[in-house]
Each structure stands twice: as structure tokens, then as C-alpha cells.
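Before relying on records like the one below, remember that each one covers exactly one chain. Contacts with other chains, cofactors or solvent are not represented anywhere in the record.
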Amino acid sequence: MKISYKWLTQFLTTDKTPAELSLILTDIGLEVESLETVQAVAGGLEGLVIGHVLSCVQHPNADRLRVTTVNVGGAENIQIVCGAPNVAAGQKVVVATVGTTVYPNEGEPFKINKSKIRGEVSEGMICAEDEIGLGVSHDGILVLPEDTQIGLSAKSYFNLEDDYLYEIGLTPNRADAASHLGVARDLAAYLRTPLTMPDVTAFKTANEQLNIAVSVEDSEACPRYSSVSISGITVKTSPDWLQDKLKVIGIRPINNIVDITNYVLHELGQPLHAFDADSLKGGQIIVKKCAEGTPFVTLDGVERKLSAEDVMICNAEEPMCIAGVFGGKNSGVNENTTKVFLESAYFDAKTVRKTAKRHGLKTDASFRYERGTDPEMTIFALKRAALLIQELAGGEISSVVSDVYPSPVAPFDVEVNYNNINKLIGAEIPHAEIKEIITALSIEVVAETAEGLSLKVPSYKVDVTRECDITEEVLRIYGYNKIAIPSKINASLSNTSKPDVEQTQHVIADMLTANGFLEIWCNSLTKGAYSKNPEEAVQILNPLSSDLNVMRQGLLMPALESVAYNQNRKTADIKFYEFGKTYHLINEKYVERPRLLILISGSNQSEQWNHKVSPVSFYHLKAAVDAVISRLGISNYQSADVSDDNFAYGLKYFRGDKAIVTFGAVTTADRKKADVDKEVFYADFDWALLLDIVRKNKIVNKEVSKYPAVRRDLSMLVDTDVTFDQLKTIAFKTEKKLIKSVQVFDVYVGEKLPEGKKSYALNFTLQDEEQTLTDKQIDAVMQKIISNLAQTAKAEIRK
């Protein structure tokens, strides 16, 4: 938010420099992000002086040029070649001398150099108003009154003073400070100086020839609607002082009527809208909601489809303005306007915020309405703007002030206790000073006791409704820097239950990241079309769009959208993981489930000169899943094939009836929904179950065995429906003590094998912790394994 130093000083008198006020503003909670010197006119007219044209003759080598002699107040006159048609001897003009940088309305700034133009020396430039940012006319040079002092700087002649611009990082809760008045209120409270408000006592109705009937159909969305009509105005360019005020804060002047509404907005924080009264068909204003899909063309010329929840300002036949957000193309004033209907309303913050987001519009008005404006400011701002219009555009007040305000907003009643305030602040502030700060903030003290105060908080302080809010207000003005940092720090020992949830998550995240995976955070809101169990879907009551209307039931679909986003940008090799929650409505209760998702697609490794690129497969995903399970110290689990709609094929690891992780290939249907054309593999971990298993794990430290391990290989034929997991289970049941691991190193299915058979090649690692194994012991164990494999799995050992 941009705030002008000179504008602030219209509300309060202070001897503080702009830099000193910058520090004060930051101390009282209005953080100044930057402070810079600015001019209403680019370049500040530096180097421009008032000159007197002594002579003007035809250029000998150019029909459209004149050679002039100009007195600029120096020891010698200078010669300037000028192409303006209106230049003549005897004129007082604005001159840019050699070395001056000129800032035109259009184009880049340029420096004036001594030069020759068609053979004649030129030592400067006689300026038109658009060439120095003082206007838009380029019909000729700017001619000043005859009594203008020669040699006077143009900056002094045009009363152009430097201003200072504060860029304030306004937090969302400080709606009361979204104007020069709001910032000045805080400064006045801190400096204990009176606040000077604009004078509106001169406002009076001249006649009632332009009374416009106003009706509000939705008083919840529009609690207050104030208005007045003004006739006999002349729309024209605003005076310099008004244009300068707006230019300093980055607002482009348009015309006197629009500029006044912008001026009052930034001065008082109350948005206004000026309608051309002749555009009010039926001579009335209706605040209502229109039918879903109603087309409406806004001021920027874009046709938008209205929602049935958008509050509109309408005439008797059609909508004219999106309330609190943006005007319609045909609702504003133009050069032919002679009568205006001036609106000053108080709209519901939530309604405006939803409408602004729905249409992707951000305006100065919606910025303030979304945070909460002051319902008691509408009439004052209306009178302020009406008086300025009379002053700058003429005309007369042609209606009474209409004020539709069926349910006035009452001040907030708050009880505060002095001891509670000091306890929360952590310092002993005298009771008298607390009361002084509160009253300086325009908070009314209704009653007082030795223990505390009964207060009425003005309605513009929308975030001050509790005792702790009053405490924050007191601390802001008292000064955060006055609260001493204690010399002693108290601490207590904490006992966290095993496992440390965050630490466990960090361990797995670090491991996955070290293996080339990237962490993603997807939106918890997603499309209802993604729900596999619609009856369990958690619906959003006021969705921002149809793409964000339910809470996600799984992590896969939002992650697939990330895959599509990356693959569409030529990033085809994907390795993602995400820790997140899924949301379900089960038996009328809302349930959140922590999950871990791992997802891969594309190539297993980036392209290199010394190896071939191969696509990722199910087994690359399985390796990542096994790494997570192993890192968590989980070894006792079963596995089985997956057959459900969430996977094209896959496995699950489980204990009892609970699945630890399910992993496999994404179905074609799911890839199509997210517009992903390449194969994708993913794993879905039950993170809550994993943590519960880890909680029960017992960590035992032991020395590395000093006795060697032995490896033996077996090749066998088995039925095609026999899995490696079954063979592994048989081996461990045969010899639990000596077998340390069983691995598969080859699988073959082909023409040379009998029908319905496949070949497995397994390696067995054996080790005794107490002695070196002999060949006799090893052969005995292997014979038992061969026998059990033959009996249980009908395996035929290949020799």
C-alpha cells in the first residue's frame, strides 16, 4: 500500500522527518518496506528554467524551423532552434538548457546537448507541456504570462515540491489502516497529537430535482447503501494539485469526477462509484443478485458470466456494476456527462472476496472491501466527494442524501483488565498510560474501575473484538521496543512419545531425496470427478471452482496432475514423493488419514554417454518401497497380488488384515483423467500404520559377526502361479537360525520349459553367529530346503 508523506501531514501536524516517521510506522505495526523521494512530475522539472524569447527569425535552411534568441537569466543569451508553430518574440517560455534531462509523457527520457540543426547552433529546447510531463498538449510550446520572472526555476514556478512515498506491507487484519486517514490515526495516537479531518459542514442540498430511488434486495450482502445526486457538472481534466496527489501514489489521472472518487478512496478508505445519472434507466438503483450466467461487460471491455451469488448494482432494466469490485462499461462518467449519481456503500467482506476471486479481479475497491471497510464512513465520504465535485466540476447537490441502513452496525463491546494486559505484554505499564493509549486510538471508555475498563471499539477496527486485541493495540502504540528482553530463559525438559513423528518423516524424506526423488505438495482440494467413493467424499460448501469442490480421497490424482504439468514441459523423467492427508466422510464423521505417496515415470536415469537409457518399471518402484520399509526397520510382513480399480497390477505388503503399502502401475483410466500418456508407477503407504509398527519395534545393537557368511545357489522349476515370496517363506520356515537372506537373481519363462512352468534361480546366504559353518552343516541345511521346496511348492531342482 502506497502512502504519501505530504498527504499524511494534511491530517496531523508533526515536525518528524519522513525517515523518522518511517521508523515510527514500523514500530506501531505498519511495516515500511521502502521509503523513496518522488515527484508528481517525472524528473521534478530539474534543470528547467523560465526564459524570455528576445528574437525569432526564420531558419535559413528549413521552412518549419525558427532560430530564436532566449534570455534564461544568465550572463549571456542563448540560441535555440525551435520547430513549434506558435513560438514568437516576447514570449515567456519553459527552457531546457544544455545538460538537462527531459522526461516526456511518451518515450524515454533524453538529455539536452549543444548541437547543430540544419547548420544552426542550438543550445537548448523550448518545451511543450507534454515534453516535460505537465500536460498532454503538443500543439505548441508552453507560453507563460508576461509577468513571469526570467531565470526562475520551473520547479519553483509550478510549485512542484518533492514528496516521500511509503510502501507499507499492510497485514490482512489491518483494514482500518488501508488509507491515509487510517495511517494518520495510528500516528496521531502514537504522537498524542490531534487529528484534523476534512471539513464537510458546507454540504447542503440545493434542490431535489434528481432524487434517485434506491432499493436493496440483499441487506446481508449490502448492509448500507448511501447515495446523492449532483447535476450541472462539467467533466474535464483535474487541477494540478489533484493530479499530483494521485500520481505520487501511482494512480493515473482520468478526469475530475473519477479522480475525486479515487482521491477520497485513498484519503478515507471508502470506495465510491460515480454513475452517469442519465444511464440509470427507470430512474432507480436496485442492489440485487442476477441470474446465473447473465452476461456483463466490465469497464475493461471483457464480457463476464455472472454467478447467482454476485451482488450487482442495477438500474430498472440491467446490471451496471459488480458491487464492491468493478464497474460496467456503460456505467461510468464520460466527457458528455452533466449529472452524476454518487454511490458510497458498505458491502459484506466475504461476498466481495468470493466475487473478486471468482472473476479474477483485483481493484483498489475490492482490496478494501475484502478486508472490511467502516460502515460509519459512507455518509462522510459521500459529502467529502460531493463538495470536491462542486469545487472542481461545478454543479449543485440535486437530491437529499439517501441512506438505506436497516440494521446499523454497533461498536464492539470489550471488557479489559489492567493485570491481564500487563501479563500478556510481559511488562508493567501504568494504568493511566494504558487508558491514555486506548483513548488516543479513538476507543471510547464507557466505564472504569480500579481493575479495568469497559470499552466501545469503533466499527472501523474490524479486528479488535477481544481483550487480547485491545492488548495488541496498546502494545503497538506503547512500543514493542520498550519491552525488555529477559536476562533469564526458563526451559523445561520435554518427553516425546516414540517414535518422533516429524523426525521419522524427515528420515524417510531425506532418504528419498538422496535417491533422486523430489518432494511435492499438492492441493488438498480437488475435482469431485476424481472420487473413487463418492459417498465418502468431503464436499466443499462454497467451492472456488468446480475443479476444487471436494477434499482429496487419495494422493494419486493431484500427483498425476503434477506429472502432466512436468511432462508437458519436456520434463519426462519423474521421481516424486509426498507426505499428505486424505479426507473421508464415514458414518457421518470426518476422517483424516496420513499417507505417503511415491511415484515414478519416464526413464530410470538421465541420458548419459556411457550407458543406455531404460524406462522405469514396476521393480524400480519396488526397490524404493523396500528401501522405505527397510529404513523403518520393518521385516515381518506378508505380500500378495493386488486386484482392485486403483492399480493395473501390483503388490501389497500387509500384516493381518491391514495393508502397510500397496504399489503398482497406474490404470489407463486414471492416467487419461489427468492427461498423462506415459506409464506411471506409484506406491501408497499407510503412514499412520507404519508409525504404529515403528512404535513397537525394539532396537537391539549387536556386534558384526566374526564368522563368515556362505552363499549357495539353487535353480528350480515351479508352477507359474508360485511366487518368490512363497519360496522365501518356505526357506525361512525350514531354517530360521542360519538363513540370513533369500534373493532371486534370475527368472525365466520361455519355449524351452514345459507348459505352465517357470524357472527361478535363488541364492541363499547362511551364517552362524557362534561358529564357522562346515560343508557338512551347509549341505544338510540345503537338503532340507530342497526337500521342503519339493514337497510344499512342488519345485524341481535343476542341476
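DSSP finds 19 helices and 41 strands in the chain.
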